[in-house]
Amino acid sequence: MSLFHRHTRKFRRSIALLLGTGLSLAVAPQLHAADVSAPAPTAPAKEQILPGKIVYAQLTTPDLDKAKAFYGSLLGWTFKDVTVSKGRYTQAIVNGRPVAGLVERPNMVAHGDPLWLPFISVQDVKAAANAAKVWGGHILFKPQNVIGRGDESVISDPQGGLFAALRSATGDTPDDTPPRNRENGSGMRC
User: Fold this and answer.
1) What is the pLDDT of residue 33?
2) Residue whose C-alpha is closest to residue 23's, from 89, 68, 94
3) Alpha carbon 84 to chain centroid, angstroms
4) Which of 6, 95, 101, 141 has the most CB atoms around it within 10 Å of its CB?
5) Residue 151, SS3?
């Protein structure tokens, strides 16, 4: 086995351990700490599933306050802190809707740099995981149902790129127009 492949496997394992605790905190925009043990929604999805769309993202970082200051200033995000059983978690809000989650893992310095994990919508998480394996990907967290969120799996592509496949229990949120900034007319504050 080449040095590259050994390091890639070690990296994926470290990231998997790091993300494992972060994923269980709160990823879905509608999931709050009080909802963690709530039964899965039985009502039909209000919105459609949009396969291939990045529907959410989560940043795992060693310093949540610095991340909030950076992304709040750069992108105009506001934040809603969510009480969780372990660590610190906040949701980034745009136009009143969560667009990302930020989870603090102070001990992650031993595992690597801060990491963004995109959540990509799929029709069937198990089928996506199986297809990823056929195409040379690796399953870091096997497909599972997360109450209040839906089905998900964390996958790495053959080069080690990470993403989560997600079939939301409530459907995917349609795109919004980002808030316009008075200074330059764009959604960004630069």
Assistant:
1) 32
2) 89
3) 16
4) 101
5) strand
Measured distance CA(39)–CA(33) in Å, rounded: 13
Residue 59 carries which side chain, given as an amino acid letter?
A: L
Q: What is residue 3's predicted lDDT score, i.e. its pLDDT?
A: 43
Short-list 83, 71, 178, 165, CA closest to 114:
71
**Residue 118: which residues within 8 A CB-CB, separation 6 or more?**
54, 56, 57, 163, 164
Q: What 3-state DSSP class applies to 55? A: strand
In 3D, which of 28, 17, 34 has the Cα closest to residue 145?
28
Amino acid at 157: D
Q: Where are the alpha helices (DSSP H) in 37-117?
A: 64-75
Q: Residue 139, Cβ neighbours under 10 Å: how many?
A: 17
In this prediction the pTM is 0.70
- Going 41 to 80 to 95 to 176, the CA torsion angle's sign is negative
For 9, list phi and psi in degrees, rounded to 5: -65, -45
**Which single residue is written with the structure tokens 């963690």?**
36
Q: What does the alpha-carbon distance between residue 155 and residue 84 come to, in Å, rounded to a whole number? A: 25
The residue type of 105 is R
Phi first, then psi, for residue 27 (nearest 5°) are -120, -40
Q: Which residues of the chain have pLDDT under 70?
A: 1-47, 109-112, 176-190
Report pLDDT for 75.
96
